[in-house]
Amino acid sequence: GQSLEQPSEVTAVEGAIVQINCTYQTSGFYGLSWYQQHDGGAPTFLSYNALDGLEETGRFSSFLSRSDSYGYLLLQELQMKDSASYFCAVRDESNFNKFYFGSGTKLNVKP
Amino acid sequence: DADVTQTPRNRITKTGKRIMLECSQTKGHDRMYWYRQDPGLGLRLIYYSFDVKDINKGEISDGYSVSRQAQAKFSLSLESAIPNQTALYFCATSGNRGGEQFFGPGTRLTVL
């Protein structure tokens, strides 16, 4: 099975850098994804790490270490609009059709 | 136009009623999914489908059924709705590689 754990809530100040961690216990997966969800909205895809290391997309970066069963999403130059929930997810290696999601981290950005 | 659409967007119903939520996609993806989200929780998989002839149960399929009418259409039914099925329901699709899923706007269902 798959189990992904994230902190429930993180608070940071506008302009700062914040890291949202995701630790997992899995029986194998293809890669780690991150999604953003604003209140009342749909999850939207942010990034995907198929391999260990850092992936950068603008102000957002994502990191994966399979040996440590750990990944994170790094948000730089925080803006108020970044206030949202962030979910990590994996695509199951034993069943390519299945995805598993963490319970999400609510990011509060304060002025 | 949105790639993944869901109807209705909001629905209030009574206990015991049969409800159908519909999902359509223009992504051309074979894989379609139904998820449920409760406040403060992540997404839990109800059913998923690889193609029209392939239907699979997810983690929480009890009380739900699905129909894959075409590659582009995947509907979710609650045969006899109960209050603890009050939640936000998302339809999603995925392609053949990578880790990306594409989500519809969601249906907010309230069962009284």
Provide structural commentary.
The complex is a heterodimer of chains A (about 110) and B (about 110). Chain A is built from no helices and eleven strands. Chain A has strands spanning about 1-5, 10-15, 20-25, 30-35, 45-50, 55, 60-65, 70-75, 85-90, 100, 105-110. In chain A, β6 (about 55) and β7 (about 60-65) form a beta hairpin. With about 110 residues, chain B is an all-beta fold. Chain B is built from no helices and eleven strands. In chain B, the strands form two sheets. In chain B, strands 2, 4, 5, 6, 9, 10 and 11 form a seven-stranded mixed sheet that branches. In chain B, strands 1-3-8-7 form a four-stranded antiparallel sheet, with no helix packed on it. Chain B starts with a strand and ends with a strand. The mean pLDDT of chain B is about 95. At the A-B interface, β4, β5, β9 and β10 of A face β5 and β10 of B.
Describe the structure using short key phrases.
heterodimer, A: 111 residues, mainly beta, 6-stranded mixed beta sheet, 5-stranded antiparallel beta sheet, globular, B: 112 residues, 7-stranded mixed beta sheet, 0% helix
